[in-house]
Amino acid sequence: MRFILAFIIPLIITGCAIPKIVDLKSTFNQDLTSKLLEKGSNTIKGSALIRQQGGGVVTCAGIPVGLIPDTEYSRERMLAIYNSDIRGYYPAFGSATVKFNNTDSGYITYQRKTVCDAQGFFKFDGISDGSFFIVTQIVWGSDTYVKQGGWIMQRVTVSNGDSKDIVISP
């Protein structure tokens, strides 16, 4: 009986969602991405949170946060996942998984990462001038099969020694 529940409950929760397959039109540009990851004089700091239905707040405490350079390739990926290249939310459960046919491994390699502190704050120092996507995941739940939350994303532009303080939420 346990085996059946372990198999059937996830199918019910995800709605037997068929993955969304995306063929990217653009290609990963390693030179441009590397240039955007060079040392600069800008800072992006902030917090990430999702408000629960009951009013509680869940943060990204202890969770990795990615700083992804805004390029044609990354923008196309964000549009496919979040239906936006400005800010977005993608539920971790109950949605079709987005899969890319022509993913370039450099996309994952050429990113900066940090981890949210215990209060849900993050900081990226020494960022070059340009636009970047900040992405993190916030998931919670007391049951193995019933989780809530998802991925959140926001695009941020910095230049000339900016110090941007942002709050990322759906």
Summarize the structure.
This protein has 170 residues and is α+β, with helices and mostly antiparallel strands.
What is the topology?
Layout: H1 2-14, E1 20-22, H2 30-36, E2 39-51, E3 57-59, E4 64-69, H3 72-82, E5 87-91, E6 98-100, H4 106-109, E7 112-115, E8 121-127, E9 130-140, E10 148-158, E11 163-168
Parallel strand pairs: 1-6, 2-11
Antiparallel strand pairs: 2-3, 2-8, 4-7, 4-9, 5-10, 9-10
Care to describe what's here?
By secondary structure, the protein is of the alpha+beta class. The chain has a single domain (2-168), classed as Immunoglobulin-like, CATH 2.60.40. The chain has helices at residues 2-14, 30-36, 72-82, 106-109; strands at 20-22, 39-51, 57-59, 64-69, 87-91, 98-100, 112-115, 121-127, 130-140, 148-158, 163-168. A hairpin with a 7-residue loop joins strand 9 and strand 10 (148-158). The protein is globular. The relative contact order is 0.28.
Widest sheet, order of strands: 5-10-9-4-7
| Major pleated sheet | 5 strands, antiparallel
Rg over CA atoms, rounded to whole Å, is: 17 Å
CATH superfamily: Immunoglobulins
Mean pLDDT: 89
Indicate the structural class. Answer: alpha+beta
Instruction: Report the top-level CATH class.
Output: Mainly Beta
How many separate domains?
1
What is the element string, with H for helices and E for strands? HEHEEEHEEHEEEEE
Supply the CATH architecture: Sandwich
Poorly predicted spans: 1-15
Quickly count the helices: 4
